[in-house]
Amino acid sequence: MPTRSVERLEQRGPFIAPAIKRDDVFFGEVTTPETLEGLMDGIDIVYSSVGISRQRDGLTFKQVDYQGNRNLIDLCERADVKKFVYVSMQGVENILNLAITGTRERVVKDLQASSMDYAIVRPCGFFSDLGMTLHMAKKGRVYLIGDGNNKMSPIHGADIAIVYADAAEDDVFEVEAGGPGGFYCHCR
Question: What pTM was estimated for this model as a whole?
Fold first, then answer.
């Protein structure tokens, strides 16, 4: 698990996000590739959910979501990593004009052009995202997309971990996931 802060790994995330479980810790900055040398040595499968969830340090989606993952892809190719499992989003084709989705889909295209096997996991939302919506509702204001009739089936972090593990083992290129217990829609 690469990180900039072990203390942050041990803390619960914002809203209802759980603390992160890990075996090993590697200190590095994904946007600074020289701090990542050796990270992929002896690694067979890489799981990346690297991306900005809340902008606080002045970095952009292009710097973190795209270039950070691009740096990981480059390291993986040099280290002969066998498979790269990456999380994007369901329904990106409808919102490619947003900075977050455009940069994340650039990573997908780079993985497709890479020398590695890959899998793209596309959840439709996370319970922790709904925790943010609940927090806003308690304050009296919630932002909705569309007319308020859109439905989604968010997935818990523990369930997405299972989807991630299965995606690494299965011979699939894309996996859509969501809902209690995590529904799967394997795509080739």
Answer: 0.77
Count of structural domains within the chain: 1
Residue type, 20: I
Segment 141-169, tens digit of pLDDT: 877 666 767 666 777 777 888 888 899 88
pLDDT in tens, 57-105: 788 889 999 999 999 999 999 999 999 999 988 877 877 787 778 888 9
Residue reference for tokens 């480059």: 74
Query: Rounded CA gap, 67 and 87, in Å?
Result: 15
- Nearest one of 31, 111, 122, 38 to 79, comparing CA atoms: 38
The number of beta carbons lying within 10 Å of the beta carbon of residue 54 is 8
Task: Identify the domain containing residue 103 by its residue range.
Answer: 2-187
CATH number, domain of 8, equals 3.40.50.720
